[in-house]
């Protein structure tokens, strides 16, 4: 049998474990009087398969149809609002299908032109699905411990934030490890493609969701990020959820005023890309920010 899916077919096998599809009539006839699982010194699944063989019941494995995947549930925490968000380690394929943008893979297809460059060395590409954006925002709002947007910030080692925002850090919701895994698996390959010769470590201390509101903190003053490069992912929709917003890179007199939900900006942090957050004039704007390789 080819477990990699290079060949499809039906195989007669002596042993199967974990998942079985059995007609009830077989269990009620040939196997009705047989102890299917118990035998000293043998695992139940081994006894089960031996009992089938002894009764002349063939076992088959087929990869002609897709019956889905087994889900690892040992670390599934139902106390969380959206437990699937934390499954990037245990169920990576399901996590990607649910939370990564459907056009992410096109980033690596040069002919598609999915990656845009609205300003010098500022790249724009699809990262999150709508579901990821919505669940991350709802998780943060349910947590509710937004910072006050002041310079004093006890979450930081020095207790001081030079460019404060109203935000919640990933480590406040216990998502730091999962987020760094996302950076390593999905952002590092994009970085290596867009900035040839730079090999990121995907190390990030500052990972946070920012909230902009006209009556709270509508904008962000000009600043440099404390990063080698920054990613900035829009989590909701301009014109529907909010008005205004966007980012202006002052040195290049270039601004992006219509961020797309689920799309990420990637730009250098220190030295070159002095930028500001443009005022949000209505509604609430959310962005996910990481300062990578500080």
UniProtKB/TrEMBL annotation:
It holds the Pfam family 2OG-FeII_Oxy. One of its GO terms (molecular function) is L-ascorbic acid binding. It is an enzyme of class 1 (oxidoreductase). Residues 201-294 form the Fe2OG dioxygenase domain. It catalyses: L-lysyl-[collagen] + 2-oxoglutarate + O2 = (5R)-5-hydroxy-L-lysyl-[collagen] + succinate + CO2. It comes from the Eukaryota. Its main location: endoplasmic reticulum. It is found in: Endoplasmic reticulum membrane; Rough endoplasmic reticulum. Keywords: Dioxygenase, Endoplasmic reticulum, Glycoprotein, Iron, Membrane, Metal-binding, Oxidoreductase, Signal, Vitamin C. Its cofactor is L-ascorbate; Fe(2+). This is procollagen-lysine 5-dioxygenase. It comes from Nothobranchius pienaari. The lineage of its organism: Eukaryota, Metazoa, Chordata, Craniata, Vertebrata.
């Amino acid at each position: 049998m080819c477990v990699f899916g290079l060949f499809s077919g039906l195989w007669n096998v002596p042993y199967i474990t974990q998942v079985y599809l059995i007609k009830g009539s077989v269990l009620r006839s040939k196997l009705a009087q047989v102890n299917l699982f118990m035998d000293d010194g043998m695992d139940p699944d081994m006894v089960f398969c031996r009992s089938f063989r002894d009764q002349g019941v063939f076992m088959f494995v087929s990869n002609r149809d897709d019956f889905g995947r087994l889900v690892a549930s040992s670390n599934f925490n139902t106390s969380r609002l959206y437990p699937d968000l934390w499954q990037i380690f245990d169920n990576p394929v399901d996590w990607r299908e649910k939370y990564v943008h459907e056009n992410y893979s096109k980033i690596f297809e040069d002919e598609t032109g999915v990656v845009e460059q609205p300003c010098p060395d500022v790249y724009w590409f699809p990262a999150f699905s709508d579901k990821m954006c919505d669940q991350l925002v709802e998780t943060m709002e349910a947590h509710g411990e937004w910072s006050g947007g002041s310079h004093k910030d006890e979450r930081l080692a020095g207790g001081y934030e030079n460019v404060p925002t109203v935000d919640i850090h990933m480590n406040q919701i216990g998502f730091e490890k999962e987020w760094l895994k996302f950076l390593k698996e999905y952002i590092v390959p994009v970085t290596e493609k867009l900035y040839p010769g730079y090999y990121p470590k995907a190390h990030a201390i500052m990972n946070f969701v920012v909230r902009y509101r006209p009556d709270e903190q509508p904008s962000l003053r000009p600043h440099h990020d404390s990063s080698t490069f920054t990613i900035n992912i829009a989590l909701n929709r301009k014109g529907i959820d909010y008005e205004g917003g966007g980012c202006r890179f002052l040195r290049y007199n270039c601004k992006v005023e219509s961020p797309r939900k689920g799309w990420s900006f990637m730009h250098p942090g220190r030295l070159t890309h002095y930028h500001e957050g443009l005022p949000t004039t209505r509604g609430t704007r959310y962005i996910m920010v990481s300062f990578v390789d500080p």
